[in-house]
Amino acid sequence: MAETIKKIIGIMDPNYFSFRGTLEALFAFLKPRIKYGPNTYEIVTRRITCRPYDALRANSTCSVILNRGAHWNPHHNSFFTIVSTKVHLINDMNSFGAINKNAGYGQMHELGIYVPPTVALPPQDYSELLANERTNPDLIFSEHELFDLHEIGNDIGYPAYLKPQSGGGWVGVVRVNNYEDLLREYNKSGEKPMNLQKAVDYTEFVRSVGVGPQIMPMHYNAEAPFSHDRYMRSPTQAVDFNFLTPEQSKEVKQIAKLINAFYGWDHNSCEALIAKDGTIFAIDFCNAYPDSSLVSLHFYFPDLIKAMARWLMFCCVKSRKKYQDFTYNWKKYFDILDESKKKKLSYHERLDLYEKVADEHFDTAHFEEFCQESLGKEFDEKAFEFFASKEFDKIMERELHYYFKVKREIPMKLAHYGGIHRFWLHCEQNRLSREPAGAAKS
Fold first, then answer.
1. Phi/psi at 304 (5° precision)
2. Measured between alpha carbons, how far is 403 from 389 in angstroms, rounded to an integer?
3. Is the dihedral of CA 331, 333, 334, 339 positive or negative?
4. Packing angle, helices 179-188 and 149-156, rounded to 10
5. Quick one: which of 130, 281, 358, 379 has the fewest CB in 10 Å?
6. Where are the alpha helices (DSSP H) in 111-245?
7. What's the pLDDT band for 295 if we cut at 50, 70, 90?
8. Buried b vs exposed e over 166-202: b needs ≥16 C-beta within 10 Å?
9. Considering the chain, what percentage of its residues have pLDDT values greater than 70?
10. Is residue 10 classed exposed, middle or buried when 0-12, 13-18 and 19+ CB atoms within 10 A define those classes?
């Protein structure tokens, strides 16, 4: 018998007002009533706030939770881990804590993804550890070996990048052109473990953000002094629609989708470099809290919000749950690796097989069917109305006031971001007039 079922999406993002605010406002504007199978689903959102909870009986009324930033808050982290058996969490709490950048480098390299030569270096400064009265230096340092930084630098080759293993928006990343640079920068690196990674002579830097099986490649300029300028194509051009060939676009999407499915991440970014010989190197891809700010993403921001809305609604109507063991599919990938070696398959043939397993994980076929048949063109048209509304203009203005602290800059920034957004509206209106809407961008 057909029912009307209410589903609640929990939204948490303590660091990006524009992302959570826009997502909440979009759902309030859409008031989704989705026919899926015999039932109709009414979907609403609820803000996840910091409050006491019963540690023995923790539960949630939400069907799915966008738990961005939970790993930074032990109070939230524990709650989400408890309810993860009952609620679909966008960020997998288990894998996010277990998998760091170097684990990702090693495993993706083993699967055949191109990763530049990388060496993990211990911290340079142990002064805090030495000052701790509870530690015994004789015991600790007996477990450490001396190493030859000069030799490591020569093995990696110059130029190279020295960067914190913990990552963090390119903070602390420095280019070293010789041993003198490396020694100086390593001596300044302090208590953070570092990576030394061979530089790639590249033609394009691509940052792909994934939401479920939807992958959005964006051009990226890591050398821009401010994060809000890094997704600009140039100081006078916001976006270049043809910066990748169709073959390059397919490959960067496959790599990002593989990584996200492999680790059980619904929302992650992958940075890749396209070398001058055409090889695509993945250089930074364990980022399950990717930059999703309007200020950074500008033109790309509405499409990211729409992608997240589609995925959240799909997870709701499918009552999607995550596997508690995020490694559940690893054997399939390594079986493909072994079989591809026996059959001498090409790199791209292997990627195609990996993508099939990733699509099984994300249930991509049913997701695309849901977007086409249950959301349809109405979703795109209503979303366009929202992004063309005064309400979204207010969100943009508020976000710019949060981010830019010099008040006299605000009018100029409003004009800048407003112009980019009007261009997005123009492009989206043209797309809607010539294409059947509802299909997810993947």
1. -65, -45
2. 22
3. positive
4. 120
5. 130
6. 127-131, 137-141, 149-156, 179-188
7. very high
8. ebeebebbbebeeeebbeebbeebeeeebbbbbbbeb
9. 96
10. buried
Query: How many Å apart are CA 142 and CA 428, to the nearest integer?
Result: 62
The two tokens of residue 48 are 């996840």
Residues 6+ apart with CB under 8 A from 3: 38, 39, 40
- Band of the pLDDT at 436, cuts 50, 70, 90? low
Residue from 421, 386, 438 nearest 22 by CA: 386
Residue type, 152: I
Q: Cα-flanking dihedrals φ and ψ of residue 255, to 5°?
A: -65, -45
Count CB atoms within 10 A of the CB of residue 28.
Answer: 12
Q: Which residue has 């110059």 as its token pair?
A: 158
Classify each residue of 33-66 as buried b or exposed e, where b means 16 or more C-beta atoms within 10 Å of its C-beta: ebebeeeebebebeebeeeebeeeeeebebbbbb
- The pTM assigned to this predicted structure is 0.93
Residues with Cβ within 8 Å of residue 240, at least 6 apart in sequence: 219, 233
What type of residue is 426? H
Q: Give me the count of residues in the chain.
A: 442
The answer to whether 251 and 280 have CB atoms below 8 angstroms apart is yes
Question: How far apart are the C-alpha atoms of 16 and 169, rounded to whole Å?
Answer: 14
